[in-house]
Amino acid sequence: MGLALYRKYRPTTLKDVIGQSQITDALEQAIKTNKISHAYLFTGPRGTGKTSVARIFAHTINDFSYKVEDEYLDIIEIDAASNTSVDDIRELREKSIITPVKGKYKIYIIDEVHMLSKSAFNALLKTLEEPPAHVIFIMATTDAHKVPITISSRAQVYNFKLADADTMLKFLDAVVKKEKLKIDQAALKIIVERGGGSFRDSLSLLDQVSALPQKQITASDVIAALGLPDNQLLKNLLAASKNHDFTSVTTTLEEILNSGIKIDILIEELIKYILANPQPELMHLLSKLANIKPPFLEAKLTVALLGDTINFVPPTPAVAPKSVTLPTPTQPTNIPTTNNITFNWRDFLDAVKSRNTGVATMLKNFNYKLEGKTLYLYAPNPTNYKLISNPKRKQFLTEITHLNIVVESPDQKLDKKDPTLSKISAIMGDIQEVKNGESSPF
Fold first, then answer.
1. Closest by alpha carbon to 189, among 230, 223, 216, 213?
2. Can you tell me the distance from the alpha carbon of 287 to that of 303, in angstroms, rounded to the nearest whole number?
3. What is the pTM of this model?
4. What is the pLDDT of residue 328?
5. Cα(135)–Cα(74) distance, rounded to whole angstroms?
6. Does 200 lie in the same domain as 61?
7. Angle subtended at Cα 173 by Cα 171 and Cα 174, rounded to the nearest 5 degrees
């Protein structure tokens, strides 16, 4: 059985490490100047070389030759994902007291250190605070934010980064030549894109397509082998979503999924396509795609693509408000009439009440008089006068009665013996009525 490419091309010296010169240069300088710390924390995405650099560094400071498969008693690797308990760390502390067998240091490499339990971290903290002189901890994690600050603050922290596309392409091209593979540059670029800057992931994908029977591996061969959707199908799907085309979205999505493409890969490819071909109409969809997480990926993707279609409701024509039918006026009793116009106060109040109860309640306390096409309303107090004389309310009453509305202030009360008093007052100025026992104003 052949060795997997990601293991075959794993670096064995710090100079072999690609794309992390800011870290390897610092570690080489520490070795040269003998300024070795008691604890290191390597953080960064998967496949960026954290564990490889930890192993190389551990072997180098102990003057051990490094081969991928060798083992030394003074270099202990611990997988924190399966050794999370406080008892595991207590056992580590007890054994750390024992001096190294062959090397200068006893070195513990703790991978995925963020997986330790809270009590395990507390136990590890005691060792980091007062470590034996011969002990070095090299911790690695893909989730640095999960490592307590009490731990990270007691270690030298190095952040590993993903490789850029050009660096990865040159690296894979060199591997292809060494392996004597025949693969197009366009096919290699697809592998680089799918690898996402991770050396391990990229080499695993290259290993997968290298097993294809074709003498010359093309881009279409890689797309089929990796289960990637064709760009034209992605374009069609996004166009249907943008145009609110319910039928095209569902049929295209069904076609893609029926071809064997995994839903999580489809979501990733849609995001990459939108980023590579940005359109304002699709930017809102980008945020929805980025937030899709298991379970029910297919349902969530469908809703994301059809979200605008579902929410898109054609505008409905404006509907004119229904007119209010007023009561038919009946011949009033004891109400003055002029020019054959009839007016019924009770019907008038009912009509007002059907549209504004508050106004109708106030009007009950008013006196009134109809002269021709003018309805005079006499307010019982200043408050009612101010409210009813408001232009909007007067217009409201005019719409109901089809009469001119005049609202009189409280000092202009209706005089039943002389209904023309208000007219005379308007012509001659303010007239004051002299009552019995009062002196004349003149």
1. 223
2. 13
3. 0.61
4. 46
5. 10
6. no
7. 65
